[in-house]
Amino acid sequence: MTISNYIKQLQSYEEYAFSWNELLSNCNKTETSLKRELSRLVEKKEIINLRKGFYLIIPPRYSKQKQLPIQLYINKLFKNLERDYYLGFYSAAKFLGASHQQVQRDYIMINTPSLSKIKKKSIDISFLTTSKWPEKNILKKKSDAGIFKISSPALTMVDLIHHQTKLGGLNRMLAILEELTEELTHNDITELLTWYSHKSTLQRFGFLLEKFQENESLNKQIMEHLKQSKFYPVLLSPKSGLKPRAIKNPWKVDVNIKLENDL
């Protein structure tokens, strides 16, 4: 079987990616001839070499963009890598209805160790890592190519807040955080509080929720959780070498930046 025929076979059941090992198993050809055919298909822009040994199929309807929506291949990519993942941060926010700004980069959370970012002409994927993998708060969504995983609204919000310095700062994400509060539920926060360990991020989360919404019961959930043990003053926007000042709010959050968004 040629690679072109194998690609047609994959597309017939809505698969948009394949690995080098799959080609070796399914195409009865030498490695040299397979590499030659792969090079031709890459040159014709029918496939993209996403990373070593992993290729994306670009069907005609996506040829103008020269890329595939990430939900069509992310699950297969991580199955191939034998790693866990979830689509998070601004990328998850988009699937949760908080697409206030168009972000060209895709953001994926993975367990340690880290992966190198993927940067092609039309593809930009950034990986962030955590050493404590979420026990809950990961949602399964359906695409044409099957199931893919994203963070829940609560996990998306704390991830954004926790990694704010790597993601353009708090003001860049304020509008998205405010939109995400509309998707929050008691159950989502309850699940988060059973395993999430970054107290300072929960303080910032509760403080911002109080600013964003009229429903105080969600804030109370977080405050009751924090009160179960000691918590200390934190900066709203972490700055190295800077310590929080005297705090006047119950969250013990020093508002050290001027909050500005366009909502």
What does this entry show, briefly?
The protein has 263 residues and is α+β, with helices and mostly antiparallel strands.
Chain-wise SSE layout:
Elements lengths: L2 H10 L4 E3 H7 L4 H13 L3 E5 L2 E4 L16 H8 L3 E3 L1 H7 L10 E6 L6 E2 L4 E7 L7 E6 L2 E6 L1 H10 L7 H12 L4 H8 L5 H14 L3 H11 L7 E2 L17 E2 L9
Parallel strand pairs: 5-7, 10-11
Antiparallel strand pairs: 1-3, 2-3, 4-5, 6-7, 8-9
Looking at the overall shape, the CATH architecture of the largest domain is 2-Layer Sandwich
How many domain units? 2
The helix-strand sequence is: HEHHEEHEHEEEEEHHHHHEE
Helix-residue proportion = 25-40%
**Class by helix and strand content?**
alpha+beta
CATH topology of the largest domain: the name is Beta Polymerase, domain 2
Kindly report the spatial arrangement of strands forming the biggest sheet.
Answer: 4-5-7-6
Rg from Cα: 22 Å
Beta-strand segment tally: 11
Kindly describe this structure.
By secondary structure, the protein is α+β, with helices and mostly antiparallel strands. It has 2 domains: 3-62; 70-254, Beta Polymerase, domain 2 (2-Layer Sandwich), CATH 3.30.460. It has 10 helices and 11 strands. It has helices spanning 3-12, 20-26, 31-43, 74-81, 89-95, 153-162, 170-181, 186-193, 199-212, 216-226; strands at residues 17-19, 47-51, 54-57, 85-87, 106-111, 118-119, 124-130, 138-143, 146-151, 234-235, 253-254. Helix 5 (89-95) packs antiparallel against helix 6 (153-162) and helix 6 runs antiparallel to helix 7 (170-181). The protein is elongated, with a radius of gyration of 22 Å. The N and C termini lie far apart (55 Å). The mean pLDDT is 91.
